[in-house]
Automatic annotation (TrEMBL):
<dbReference type="InterPro" id="IPR003594">
    <property type="entry name" value="HATPase_dom"/>
</dbReference>
<feature type="transmembrane region" description="Helical">
    <location>
        <begin position="20"/>
        <end position="42"/>
    </location>
</feature>
<dbReference type="InterPro" id="IPR050980">
    <property type="entry name" value="2C_sensor_his_kinase"/>
</dbReference>
<keyword id="KW-0418">Kinase</keyword>
<dbReference type="Pfam" id="PF00672">
    <property type="entry name" value="HAMP"/>
</dbReference>
<dbReference type="Pfam" id="PF02518">
    <property type="entry name" value="HATPase_c"/>
</dbReference>
<keyword id="KW-0067">ATP-binding</keyword>
<keyword id="KW-0597">Phosphoprotein</keyword>
<keyword id="KW-1003">Cell membrane</keyword>
<dbReference type="InterPro" id="IPR036097">
    <property type="entry name" value="HisK_dim/P_sf"/>
</dbReference>
<dbReference type="InterPro" id="IPR005467">
    <property type="entry name" value="His_kinase_dom"/>
</dbReference>
<keyword id="KW-0547">Nucleotide-binding</keyword>
<keyword id="KW-0808">Transferase</keyword>
<keyword id="KW-1133">Transmembrane helix</keyword>
<keyword id="KW-0997">Cell inner membrane</keyword>
<dbReference type="InterPro" id="IPR004358">
    <property type="entry name" value="Sig_transdc_His_kin-like_C"/>
</dbReference>
<keyword id="KW-0812">Transmembrane</keyword>
Amino acid sequence: MNAAPSTGWRRLLPRTLAARLALILFAGLLLAHALSFALLFSERYMATRSMMLTHLDQDVAVSVALLERLSPAERARWAPSLERRTYRYLLGPARPGVPLTSERAREVTALIDRSLDHRYRLQARTVSTSPECFEVQLTLADGQPLTIEVTPSVMPIARWLPVVLAAQLALLLLCAWLAVRLATRPLVQLADAVERLDPARAHPPLPREGPVEVVKAATAFNAMQARIGHYLAERLQILAAISHDLQTPITRMKLRLEAMGEGADRDRLIDDLEQLLQLVREGIAYARSTHGATGPAVLLDLHALLDSVVCDYQDAGKPVTLGECARASLSTRPPTLRRIVENLIDNAVKYGGSAEVGVRRLDDGRMAVDVCDRGPGIPEQEMQAVLQPFYRLESSRNRDTGGTGLGLAIAQQLVATLGGELVLANRDGGGLRATLLLPVAPASTPTPAR
């Protein structure tokens, strides 16, 4: 029963830690200022009350005695001069009202009676309650009624005081926001570093600065990043070594089989050895691709590079065409980019029978290299899985179209080293579109291609 309101309130809270801390500090500062303002009003009320009672006690006896000795004409002239901020003297009867309703009114009436030494018969009544106003009537010696009108009120606040309080609150809020930003910035940097964590790419370590807890977290993250990179490099080194060492015995076995007499079994064994040798070669290629692309980035014409790749395939008799191609120059590593495009074209030709290459410029400024085919496509639920090493679709597990399951994985690894992205999508009407998204802005100063 009580969980629903709590959940509802939590939904209203900001989602970021910095915003929540700022909200807490702002609420605390607001409450502190409200308390200070309340104490200020209370102090001013007490001071005003004490001042009014003190002045009234000293002033009433003198003022009434003065009015007693003046003629009626002179009283009318002097009465306004005797007026104070919270009370004044009126020559006439009191207005209709009700008996006194507040303790303060009764206390002031008693004070007036004592100040006059109980020489007058006082009639006190409340005229207004909001704002509070009460009148005390007495009769002078010549029979003229005299009314003391009392309107208790707090001393008025200076006009500059709310401005000063608002400026103080704004200044404290700004300081609190800066403090929260400084406190949470290391956490934001740590979160960004975790999101960018990629063992296949080198990243600078987090700076070890700030509070002790932040330094410990940054140190632990740097150590974890180094361990992951070391383990991955060791694993890939083992994979590359095994794959490399397997090539020699496989080659010897193939030579011995070729020296044997012709036959169906001999041809099948040679075919199996060819597939095994291809698997070993692609295993070495995958291990090397995870170490990233080497060499400096150069500025090249993307259309010229793709035209060269497509012409090489056409010279080899492969059904590969170059479609609509936007002109663009970008900073990249040509050997790595060429190898990615070749892997995508090989995959399209193997499973789709042909490939069409094109280039588009996206709205965000990136260049999109499309390699399309009209093959069977890939089921949506397996679109990401095919980018993993050694993963093959069930329909490709046969001798004719088998493959090793490393072509797209190698392309994915190499794309990451260029700071790009590989996106697969099925085409309308059948087939697959492999899109290579490349950033145009160089990561460093490029070397012009010669």
